[in-house]
Amino acid sequence: MTALGGGIVSSGGPCGALTGGVALLGSVLGRDDPGKKDDPLLWEACREFYARFEREATNESGSVNCRDITGIDDWTDREQRRAFYKGEGIHKCRVNTGKAARILGEVLEKYVKHKTK
Length: 117
Description:
single chain, elongated, 62% helix, 5 helices, mainly alpha
């Protein structure tokens, strides 16, 4: 999952904590057989995780994109990365990732319980 950092391979796109969370939900709640249809519960859980992430974990930007959350336009720029890791950026990212983990845990608790009924 490391390659999700910096917004999917350092592209500045969707936050790795968001995409990783959706991947985990797909792994836990997704279909086991490619020939079967998706359980609507998966989509409900993913939509809830996404909406809560967008509301609770995107800082002031309101965007789910790494470039907007971190303020780094180009993750391949060594100076921008250096400033991020030496400044407050890395701390904000860790807090944001923690929020995403909390939200994901709450969503998993809620939907895994439904799936096992």
